[in-house]
Design goal:
This protein is mostly helical and 306 residues long. It folds into two domains: 4-107, Orthogonal Bundle (DNA polymerase, domain 1); 123-290, Intergrase catalytic core (hpI Integrase, Chain A, Orthogonal Bundle), CATH 1.10.443.10. The chain has helices spanning 4-18, 23-42, 54-66, 77-96, 123-134, 140-153, 157-161, 191-203, 223-237, 243-256, 261-268, 273-294, 296-301; strands spanning 168-169, 174-178, 184-188. Strand 1 (168-169) and strand 2 form a beta hairpin. The radius of gyration is 23 Å and the shape is globular.
Length: 306
């Protein structure tokens, strides 16, 4: 019989690595599945994969809903879905390898969680953030270029900090992004963003590194450094800000401007259309709120006036 802990080790270190998954992906699955193995052991549940049952996994998912993260806050709906997805892939692999008689997760649905609201930036907030970037004392040209690139492409933080000079095609206004799972894609950006990028490249970027967005030392900007930049801009503009908020803003604004969900999927690098459809569903929520505030019937019969 094989223990869950040993199978987790084989799944993460051998199977996922053989598929070319990124180090961040390996770390995530190792953390999620390792926690599951520890929960089984500490709770004195059966620790052999053959003894796993839908009831045991459902009990574990309930424990996650009722527990808190390392920050002392409840897990977000996104985190719970991600952990459920990791367990589902692991159990599917166990069955395909003949380690279990059935796919244990096939009868375990995702936990019911409150609808998640992905915060996005308003046009007024975007204006304040760009102003804060331009007025910065340290690297204003770089900071403005990063903000516009994030807003115009929806790129992930890891994709932005990994950009090199050769990744940009100035004739077509596109950039090569290296996405999750070694999936590269080209994304377009506007003429206004191109001007900001070239202004930074000509006036502030050094040639001592191939990195396009450089740290103050001239090296590749790190994800931590990008996070710090967002925090600084957020403090100056008094707006809660992180790199992923730009990605949400790009997606919502793109759809509001008339872009299709299929093109959005390609731009964001989503492996399935389901991820992109979540943003489309958010537009429905926007429509409901707008109608509640501006209903013609309410306006006429309640005698509302602007």
């Amino acid at each position: 019989m094989a223990s869950v802990a040993d199978c987790v080790n084989a799944y993460v270190r051998v199977h996922l690595r053989s598929e070319g998954r990124s180090p961040a992906t390996l770390e995530w699955h190792g953390h999620v599945l390792g926690r599951f193995a520890t929960w089984l052991r500490d709770g004195q549940h059966p620790s052999d994969v053959e003894d796993l049952s839908p009831l045991i996994i459902k009990t574990y998912m309930v424990s996650l809903i009722e527990s808190t993260s390392k920050h002392g806050t409840p897990y977000s709906p996104h985190s719970l879905r991600s952990m459920h997805s990791s367990l589902r892939s692991f159990c599917k692999w166990l069955h395909s390898e003949g380690l279990t008689a059935q796919d244990t997760m096939s009868r375990v649905s995702q936990p019911k969680t409150p609808k998640e609201h992905k915060p996005n930036l308003s046009p007024q907030e975007i204006t304040l953030i760009i102003r804060a970037a331009r007025e910065g004392r340290r690297t204003p040209l770089r900071d403005e270029a990063i903000v516009l690139f994030l807003l115009d492409t929806g790129a992930r933080a890891s994709e932005v900090v990994g950009l090199t000079e050769s990744d940009f095609d100035w004739h077509t206004h596109t950039a090569l992004l290296r996405g999750k799972g070694a999936k590269d894609r080209r994304v377009p950006f506007s003429a206004l963003t191109a001007k900001a990028l070239q202004r930074y490249a000509l006036k502030a970027r050094t040639k001592q590194s191939t990195a396009f967005f450089q740290s103050e030392e001239g090296q590749f900007l790190t994800r931590w450094g990008l996070g710090q930049l967002c925090r600084r801009l957020g403090e100056r503009s008094q707006i809660s800000l992180n790199p992923h908020k730009f990605r949400h803003t790009f997606a919502i604004t793109y759809l509001r401007a008339g872009g299709t969900v299929f093109a959005l999927q390609k731009s964001l690098g989503h492996s399935s259309l389901d991820m992109s459809l979540r943003y489309s569903n958010m537009l429905t929520d926007d429509l409901v709120r707008e109608h509640q505030e501006h209903s013609p019937v309410e306006f006429v019969f309640a005698k509302k006036r602007p």
